[in-house]
Amino acid sequence: MQTGDYRISEILPAGTLLCNERFEIIECLGSGGFGITYKAYDHKLARYIAIKEFWPRDYVYRDSSAQVCVVPEQRDAFQRMMKRYLNEARVVAQLKHPNIVNIIDHIEENGTAYIIMELVEGHSLKTVLKAQRHCRLPEERILHIVNQVVDALATIHRRGIWHLDIKPENIMLSPDDHVTLIDFGAANATISVSQSVAGRVLDPRYAPIELLTGDELGPGSDIFEVGMLLQELLTGERPTASWDRLFAKVNVWESDQPEPWKQLINTALRLRLQDRPTDIRLWWEQRGIVTKRGENMGVILKGIRVWLEQRGIVRAKYPWAILAIVSVALLCIAVIAYFYGSRAFSGGKGERINATDHAAMVWVPAGKFTMGSAGTDSAAPADGKPPHDVFISGYWIYKCEVTVAQYRMFCRATGRAMPPAPGWGWRDTHPIVNVSWHDAHAYADWAGTQLPTEAQWEKAARGTDERIYPWGNYWKKGVCNQKEMGLEQTVSVGRYPTGMSPYNVYDMAGNVWEWCADWEGPYSSLPESNPTGPQTGDRRILRGGAWESNGISACRSTARFSGKPDMLNTGVGFRCVLPTSTDD
């Protein structure tokens, strides 16, 4: 039993029944804010659930019959707070998102209120951090976790709701690091700006100054808390609390981390709300911009250095003055690369969201690329040859494979049945599997998109530099989900940021094979423009490899596979594209 700071006498004993004996308390899971959370059993639906009891400790006590009694002078305050507590249930119940806890119901009983919600399996991020050496996580895992937190917060921000209590205790992790955001008791939809600070649920270790002083709140309030969390995940230590910074008159807090983390954290942790970013998704996407800018600067500087060495300009016969001039020139080029380099791969368009299924899409600009493996590449399958030049018009491609949650949305909207579940069950952030080519095609129609042609898929996977894998020319074991990883199932999409393609597309290697629009057929040896494959056939193309594949061969960007259009397989899913002809 995990009771936190609550006394045993304050906790409902195991076996306590609620709601006409429907819910039975099993054990206390912990406490936070103004409540105590229990694991319980729902006898009506035969499942385990979580129940959060409204328990403002300084206002109440429990009698021998488990009835909650309110201190007389606090009755009015208690009623006001309980009203806001129940409003939390109504607010969160509207937030249907795979990374937000699912609210089932709420009841009033024993003189207080209870929120009934799904039982999230796993551990809190706080527990996970404590188990790590130095209480910090690897960067790849941080990216995977914070990606999901940001996605959930971006969703609630669009509805004008701020969470206001982002901290490790309120982030639950499943065994495969699926994030569930819990405890919306501090959300701005449950409080008002005029509400006293004493009535606000907050944690001063993470809270922005406006939450502590009772001032106006905004999306920047959540961004501040995510910035605090990010520094803690990277270093094992929290930045200076906002209250201490206020008294020390420190508006700007400087992170000691390298880019892209430094800029992210510094902009998030500005003391004044008006100095912080206002869009959490745009703020988070700075990491890709900073990283790409850094890569571009590195390439440019290296090229200039080689050029200068070849011409003898940096030899000893030229004194420090020449080197100083060269340094200034390099600095100017670095500044240009910083501001413009990030647009090189995006064609200046960056990302957009599909309005139907809320999928993030990235832009692949028009141009030529080499499709297929070189004839001298003995390790490449024969059906991926010969190499040939292909021109592709610009298009948008889904940044991740279509997920279970997105496909379920499609099924509910169209009345279509979900496919058979895989052995590991349906997990909302995993890619959908067991879908035929016809299923994938129907989804694309519903979403206002298309399945990618084989050429579109390959360009998004390998770019224009003829790389063998999405990340480069050498095999790396830990950058995609394939047989060698030993997981024996799919994982959440976007879990391996170091395995992204040149256009920042996730999972183009491993996790699931992806249906393409084309019929199977041999390659042409001649240049082509926007090829769509054979006009007829009996098998459709699949690309990318899967969790059960031999990664070295199947995860090559040029590797081809195929299947009957009605085939169902736990290693097969899909993603969509939006060509310019159907765009703007």
Q: What structural keywords apply?
A:
6-stranded antiparallel β-sheet, 584 residues, alpha+beta, 4 domains, Phosphorylase Kinase, domain 1, 17% strand
Descriptive notes:
The protein has 584 residues and is α+β, with helices and mostly antiparallel strands. 29% of the residues lie in helices and 17% in strands. It has 4 domains: 8-118, Phosphorylase Kinase, domain 1; 123-278, Transferase(Phosphotransferase) domain 1 (Transferase(Phosphotransferase), domain 1); 283-343; 351-582, paralog of FGE (formylglycine-generating enzyme) (Alpha-Beta Complex). The protein contains 13 helices and 22 strands. It has a 6-stranded antiparallel β-sheet with strand order 1-2-3-4-8-7, covered by helices on one side. It starts with 16 loop residues before the first strand and ends in a 5-residue tail after the last strand. The model is unreliable at 1-5, 190-200, 289-302, 316-321 and 333-348 (pLDDT under 50).
Blueprint (SSEs and pairs):
Blueprint: E1 17-18, E2 23-32, E3 35-42, E4 47-54, E5 60-62, E6 68-70, H1 75-93, E7 103-109, E8 112-118, E9 123-124, H2 125-130, H3 139-157, E10 171-173, E11 179-181, H4 209-213, H5 219-235, H6 242-248, H7 261-268, H8 280-310, H9 320-340, E12 351-353, E13 360-364, E14 367-371, E15 388-392, E16 395-398, H10 404-414, H11 437-446, H12 454-462, E17 513-519, E18 528-529, E19 540-543, H13 551-554, E20 560-563, E21 572-573, E22 577-579
Largest sheet: 6 strands, antiparallel
Total helices: the number is 13
Q: Rough shape? A: globular
What class, by secondary structure content? alpha+beta
CATH topology of the largest domain: the name is paralog of FGE (formylglycine-generating enzyme)
Total strands: 22
Average pLDDT level: 84
The name of the CATH superfamily of the largest domain reads paralog of FGE (formylglycine-generating enzyme)
